Amino acid sequence: MNGQDQIEKQENPRENDARAGIGWLLMDMALVSGGMTALVKAQGVTYPAFQLVFIRAMIGLIFILPLIWQHRGEMARVKYPWRNLFRICCNAIALTSNFVAITLLPLATVNAVGFSRPLVTMAMAVVFLGEKVSRYRWVGACLAFVGVLVVIGPGGAEINAGVLVVLVSVVFGALAVIQTRALRQENTTVMMVFYTVGLAVITAVPAIWTWKPVMPLDWVALLAIGLLAQMGQYCFLRAYRIADASVLAPVGYLSILFVTAVGYFLFDEVPEARVVLGIAIILVSLQATAFAEYLLKKLRGRR
Asked: 49-63 vs 218-242: helix axis angle to the nearest 10?
């Protein structure tokens, strides 16, 4: 076996991890951005954000009861309880503020402003996790963010209370992602239980305080929110257990495809030309970044 083959053999595990992580993250985006967000948009007009988050957590807890029983041994051996607690606090703030923003702003604006999270996450991955981010990936992420700015358009997202709420969601969401990556040695079921129970506990009092009676037919949508969110959470945790946060963060820009599709098919939101252009910039930037890194690895392997 020559030197190049040995290098490729050593690199392949990490490449496979990255591909698998991206696959799990795309599944998460399809479930959450493509499904749950639409239901929250529809139900958020009627029910307060805290109530929606609380119901989502309780329904999610019911769905994972079989997993809790199956992994009951791991539940008694939590490795990082305080880090798990900090993660769910960040998640609770991020999720609740995002639900509030969805009810205050157009769906496209919420997601466009929220697309600043990949850059924030990449920066935090470097600072808090010591991950190394290539200049190609930084350039690709910045160019993809330019595509986001094109989507927003001139005056598309004026600084107001709703946008500030989205920014709060971005910061705490990025912190939650970093903690998820740092907890990659923790059992997935343990992390799901901490997340679900933590959301229920943190939002219980404000949910009860602002509670509105739920119409019988609305329980169908609320059950779907809980199920989709829990399935998405599992995919999300799987992604960040096996791939670096700095690799997955730019892929988050692709959620704009799911959001645009939801807006078009469910809310009759026909994308403007600038939205199509922005999506094209995002896709080309990410693909060009991946191709540049691939060529760089090949060149290094030949030396």
From this structure: 70
pTM, entire model: 0.68
CA distance 108 to 255: 11
- 13: number of Cβ within 10 Å: 9
Q: What's the average model confidence in pLDDT over 113-142?
A: 80
Q: Is the dihedral of CA 74, 201, 114, 218 positive or negative?
A: positive
Measured CA to CA in angstroms, residue 103 lies from 44, 60, 97, 108, 175 at distances of: 6, 22, 10, 12, 23
Dump pLDDT digits (tens) for 81-92. Answer: 888 889 888 988
Max CA separation in the chain (angstroms): 69
